[in-house]
Amino acid sequence: MSYRITWIEAQCSFEATSDETVLEAARRAGVVLPSECEFGGCGTCRVKLAQGRVQYDEMPDALSQDEADAGYALLCQARACADLTISTERSLDAPAPAQRRQVSVVRTEPLGPDVTRLVLASRERAPWVFRPGQYLDVLLGDTGPRSFSMACAPEAGDRPGEVELHIRSIEGGYFTQMRLSKLRPGDTLDVEVPLGGFGYHEDDYRPIVMVATGTGIAPLRSMLAQMLASGAPPIDLYWGGRTQAALYLHDELTALANQREDFRYVPVLSRPDDNWAGARGYVQDAVLADHPDLSEHSVYLCGSPVMIAEAKTAFVANGASVRYLYADSFTFQHPAREDAAA
Question: What is the model's pLDDT at position 91?
């Protein structure tokens, strides 16, 4: 059976059969809808169903039942059960099309026990064009790409033409354990950039809660530079780790919070020692302890899939609107890849 899919913003329509996903049908028709991972892990292809209904073989990881009940769908997994009218009004436009380019290694240095800062430079120190919150793929031939978020603003002050990545070591990871430690200044890498639909929604002028675990802080750090410079609403940033050593930007974020009245930083440890005087437990619980009602906030989540799934459920139950809840999960990569994104 065939159904008519109408995309409001693009003012176009295409046909989808019941045995293909809506995204597959769109591509078959030459219609380009926002998408990234294509296995339901990132949420980039999330749309609002203005009309019609869909079904899934399995509920995708990046879509909660509350979001589905509110009329949202992930097109890479959704199959039409009726004619659909869809809206992508919350999608962010990419500042530039993704391009493959060769870059050189400027330096590598440890940031924490298992996190490395990798600084790359474009040829002739040309500016990097990306939206804070986006990522790049390091292209590794037959082993497939590895994805890492930019951890800096598009132009890093006195370092024009450079971009910074925060890379967590993964046990047995081909790139993070076998290649990264061997990189030297001047070595070249092939990358594809910019990628991803995560970023700051400037039109959502609400108080902001940002939540990260591990190297999920990288894209939020990139976004903070943009947000604080543009006069964003007050920002509360919660960063969770097991031990204090995992919070490798703790001093930087503490200093920033001391300088800005519109920025608050809350570190949270799940396995602290006896000397830790800060928040303890899971980072999403620390958010709710401070914000039992999230109905007036925009929320940005970046980190482990488990944290994001649990935080979404808990935050929506405490008033957060799925319309103003944005997530970047490390599951936007293909499941077969060894390394976790940052």
Answer: 67
Q: Which domains does the chain have, with CATH numbers?
A: 2-87 (3.10.20.30), 99-195 (2.40.30.10), 208-332 (3.40.50.80)
Model confidence at 156, pLDDT cuts 50, 70, 90, reads low
Closest by Cα among 19, 22, 34, 49 to 332: 34
Antiparallel, parallel or unpaired: β 2-7 and 12-17? antiparallel
Distance CA 231, CA 234 (A): 9
- Is the confidence at residue 330, as pLDDT, over 80? no
pLDDT at 157 over 60: no
Q: Between the CA of residue 246 and those of 87, 150, 263, 273, 279, what are the distances in Å?
A: 39, 19, 21, 13, 14
∠ at Cα 176 (171, 182), nearest 5°?
A: 125
CB burial of 96-129 (b: ≥16 within 10 Å; e: otherwise) equals eebeebebbbbebeebbebbbbbbbbbeeeeebb
Residue 272 phi/psi, 5-degree rounding, is -75, 160
Separate counts of helices (H) and strands (E) for the chain: 6, 19
Cα 8 to Cα 137: distance, rounded to the nearest angstrom: 31
Cα 161 to the chain's mean position, in Å?
23
Q: Which residue has the higher pLDDT, 91 or 15?
A: 15
Task: Quote the distance between the C-alpha of residue 156 and its chain's center.
Answer: 20
In terms of DSSP bridges, do strands 263-269 and 279-280 run parallel, antiparallel, or are they unpaired? Answer: parallel
Whole-structure pTM value: 0.82
pLDDT tens-digit map of 162-216: 999 999 998 888 898 889 999 999 999 999 999 888 899 988 889 999 999 999 9
Specify the pLDDT at position 78: 96
Residues in the chain: 342
CB 275 within 8 A of CB 259: no
Distance CA 46, CA 35 (A): 8
Rounded Cα distance, 215 and 149, in Å: 9
Question: Which of helix, strand or coil describes residue 194?
Answer: strand
pLDDT at 85: 96
Residues 61/87, Cβ–Cβ less than 8 Å: no
